[in-house]
Amino acid sequence: MIKELYKEVLRETALNISETRIDAVRKKSIIKSGCRVYKDGFIGVAGCYGEATDDTWAKAEANLTNQIPYPYAPEQSKTRTVDLRSFEISDEQFIVDIETLLADMKMEFPQYILSNKIQITESEFSLANDAGLNLIYFDKTIMLMLLVKHVDSVNIIDSAIIHISRNYDLNKLYAEARKILAGYEKEVTFPKLKKIPVILQQSEMLGKFQESLHGEAMALGSSMFKERMSSKVFHENFHLYQDRSEEHYHVPFFDLEGTTQENDRYPLICEGVIQHTYTDKKSAATYSLPLTGAAGGNYDEVPTLSSPELSIATGNKTLKELLNGELGILAVFISGGDYTSSGDFVSPVQNSYLTDGDHILGRLPECSISGNLYEMFGENYIGFSSDKAFMGNNLLVIRMEVTY
Amino acid sequence: MYQFPKDLYTDIRIETVAKTNITLENYEVRQNKSSTDTGAMIRIFDGNRWYYSATTNIDHLQEEIDQLAKMATPDSEVYNHPVIKKLEVNQGVMLTYQDTDVSKIDPKEKYEVLQTYIPVMKNNSEIKISRLYYLDNHTVKHIISSKGTDVLFDIQSCCIAARYIFQIDGNPCRGSENIYHMKFEDIIGKQEQLRLSIEKDYNYYKDAIPVTPGSYTCVLSPEVTGVFAHESFGHKSESDFMVGDETMKREWAIGKRVGKQLLNIIDTGLVKGSGYVPFDDEGCRAKKNYIIKDGILTGRLHSAATAANLEEEPTANARAMNFEFEPIVRMTTTYIDAGNQSKEELIGQISEGVYIESLFHGSGMTTFTIAPQRAYMIRDGKLAEPVRISVITGNVMKTLDEIDGVSNEVELFSFALGGCGKMEQHPLPVGFGGPYIRVNGINVQ
Fold it and tell me: How far is residue A70's CA from residue A56's CA, in Å, rounded to a whole number?
C-alpha cells in the first residue's frame, strides 16, 4: 500500500476597491489536504480543510471499499522544488501603496470610478508519497483587476485595467492604469477593412482546443479534430503546448498524479500539425497514448483527465512588428462568445481599443468578432507576440471579421 | 461564545458543507466521495473599512477575530453608522432539511440510484462520451453578529446530472440533462426525463443547419427566459454597481418605465431550489422582491452596505460563494412572471423567427449574450427546421422593451453544475425561470 498526500495552501491579502478607494481588506489562510491510498489496483481518497489527520487517512483507507480502479503506478523516487516567490511586502505597506495609487488616479483621472480587487496571492502546492515522491511548488503574485466606469456612463463597466506579475513593481501598475484611462478618453472608429487584426489574450480563444485535444474525446471519436490528427490544419507558425511552466501563475509543474515533463511543457500542435492530445494516466494507458500529465480535479478527488493550461509558443516579433504598420483592435472585455459544433466562433466585444502595438490610440465602440477556428488559426493567424505590450501578457493577433 | 472586540462591528459565518460526488465516466466509477468540511468567514467593520478573514482554522476563531481586529480602528459610534443600522437582527433556527438530510443516506444507496440511469444513456449508441453524476449537498450556516444576530439554517440539493457527446457528421455535439431536487427520494425514477432529453438533442443535431445571421423575433423557452432575465436585467439590478455613481442613480431611478406593461421580474430567496436562501450571508431574512412590476422599475437588489448608500432597505441579496469570500450583492431565484398568452399564440403570430429551446451559457452587462444549444426556425407561425447558432445578443435596455408576449405558465430551474459568476465568485447557485416570452429584434449569429 502506498500513501500519498496532496496539499494546497493559499494565503492572500485582497484589497476591495469601491469608488476608487479601499473599502475592505480580506485575508485568506486556507489549507486543503487530500489523502490517497493505493492498494491492489484501487485508490481510496479523502480530504479535509486544514492539515490531514489520522482520521483523514483512515477515511481514505476505508474508501478503498468503493473499489475505484487505479491500476497505474503512483509516481516514485522523484523530488523537486520550484519556488517562484520573489517579493515580500507587509500588508500595511501594501495598503498604503495602493491607497496612494488610487488617490493619484483619482487626481489624474477624476472622470473615472475604479472598483473591484487588487490582491497579493501566495500559493503552495505539494504532492508527496511514501515511495519517494516529493514535489513542491510555491508562487506569489500581485494582481490588479480594476473595473473602470466613466462617471457619465450608464454602463455597469466601461473598461478594465488588468495586470498580473511576480514582481511588486508599482511603476508597472501606474503605467498600465494610465495607458487604459488615457486611451479611453478619445473615441475612434474602426479601420475600414473586411477583416481586421484583433488582439486578444490567448486564454479567451483556446477553449475549443482544450475541448478538442482531450485524449479520451479523440480516442472515442468525439473530437472535432478526429479526422485531422497528424495533418497540417493550422498556420505553420502556430505551435501549441500543454504548459505547466512558469508562464502560468499558480500552476504547479506537476499534475495531480505527479506527472512532470521536460521543461514543464508538452507539445500538442507543432507547425500547424496536430501531433498529440493531452492525457492522464488512465487515458494514456487505455488508449495507448503518450502520457502528458493532464490529471486534475479537486484536492480530495481521484485525479482525472482535465483541461490543462495551454500556451501558444511565442514568436520572435513584438506586437508592433506583428501588426506590421496596420492598426489592431485590442479586446479588453470579451464575454459571452462561443463556437458552434463545426467551429464557427462569434463573440461580442464589450470594450476594445485601437492600437499600433505600442500605444493605445483611442476607444472603439462595442462590436462583435467572428471567424472559423481553422481560418482564425490558419490563414488568418498573424502570431503571438514576443513582448507584453498590454495587460501584462503576450498577446494573440488574429485577423477577424468585425461587425459594429 | 465569542468575545467581540469593543467599538467594532463583527460577524462570523460558519459553514459546514456535507456533500457527495459520485461520477461515472463512460459508465465506470471515477469518483465516489462523501465529505464534510467546515470553514468560516469573519467580518469586522470600524466605520471606515471592512476587514475580512477566511479561515479553515475553526478551532481558533477567537484568535482570528482578535488578530483581524488589530487591523481596524475602534470607533465608539460604529453602531450608529448607516451600514450597521441597516443590518437586520434575526435569531432562530431554520433547519428545513434536518429530517431529509442527504448526508445521512448511505452512499451505496446513492450509487445504486445513479446506476439506474445508465441504461437510458446506453440506449443511444451515438453517445461517444458520457458522464453521469450523483451530486448532493447539505450545508448548514451559522451566522452570529455583535449586533445580536444568531441564525442557524440549512440548504440542500440533490441531483443526477448527465453530460454526453454525440459524434454527428464528424462534429462533436454536446448534450445534457439535470434532474435537480431538494430531497433524495425525488431524484428516483426520472429516467423518462433523461431519455427525452437525449432524444431531443440527437434529433436536433442530426438535422441542424447553420442559421442565416440577422435580426429576428425570438421566442425563448422558460429555461432560456430565466437566463435572459438573469443576464439581461438581473445583473443590472445588483445595486453595488450604482454605489457612489450619480449617473447610474439617475438612470435607474425607481419609477422609470423599462418595459411594456406585461413585464414583471422578481427575485426571491424564498423559492426552494438552487436559489433558496432563507437568510442571506449577512443574516437578513429572505423576501420577495419585485425588480420590475408592470414594466416599471420598482426595486433593486441590496446588501446592507448598498441599501445604506442608496437609502433603501436590504433585500437579503448579500451572498458569498462559500466561506472563502465576503458577501456581495447577488441574485437568488430570478424569474419573469406569467402573462396571459399560450406558447402557441406567441409562436403563431410570427412569420419568420427563431425559437430558442435550450442553452449552453449566458452572460450580460450592457450587452447580454446567450449561446443556444437547441434552436429552431419559426416559419408561418410554426416550428420549422433546427438551426445552429453561435450566440444571440442584444442591448439590455433596448431588448427589455422589445418583449411583447408572455405566456401564462412559469417554470423554475436550478443549476446542477455551474451557476452564476460575478468577478472572482463563480459559481454561485441561483435559480432562474419564467414563461415563454417573445422578443423582437434579437441579433442572431
Answer: 20
Task: Measure A66 CA to nearest chain B CA, in Å.
Answer: 7
Q: Which fold has domain A2-178?
A: PmbA/TldD fold (3.30.2290)
Instruction: Quote the pLDDT of residue B68.
Output: 96
How distant is the Cα of B182 from the closest Cα of chain A, in angstroms?
A: 24
Residue B361: exposure state from Cβ atoms within 10 A (0-12, 13-18, ≥19): middle
Note whether B244 contacts A47, CB cutoff 8 Å. Answer: no
Q: Which residues of chain B have pLDDT under 70?
A: none
DSSP strands (E only) in A265-366? 265-270, 273-274, 295-296, 304-305, 310-312, 328-334, 338-339, 344-355, 360-364
DSSP track, B265-287? EEEES-SSSTT--SB-TTSPBP-
Please give the model's pTM, rounded to 2 decimal places: 0.92
For chain A, the structural domain boundaries read 2-178, 186-404
Asked if B362 has any chain A CB less than 8 Å from its own CB, the reply is yes
Is B219 found in the same domain as B179? no
Establish if B13 touches chain A: CB-CB under 8 angstroms: no
Residue B3 placed within a domain: no
Q: Would you call the peptide bond into B427 cis, given omega within 30 degrees of 0 as the criterion?
A: yes
Q: Check CB contact under 8 Å for A366 and B32.
A: no
Provide φ and ψ at A6, rounded to 5°.
-110, 135
In angstroms, the separation between the Cα of residue B373 and the nearest Cα of chain A is 9
Chain B residues with CB inside 8 Å of A332's CB?
none
Of B99, B160, B410, the C-alpha closest to B268 is B410
ipTM, two decimals: 0.91
pLDDT, residue B168, reads 87
pLDDT (tens digit, 9 = 90+) per residue, A186-218? 999 999 998 999 999 999 999 999 999 999 999
CB atoms within 10 A of CB A92: 9
Which of 212-251 (A) contact B at CB < 8 A? Answer: 212, 216-217, 220-224, 226-227
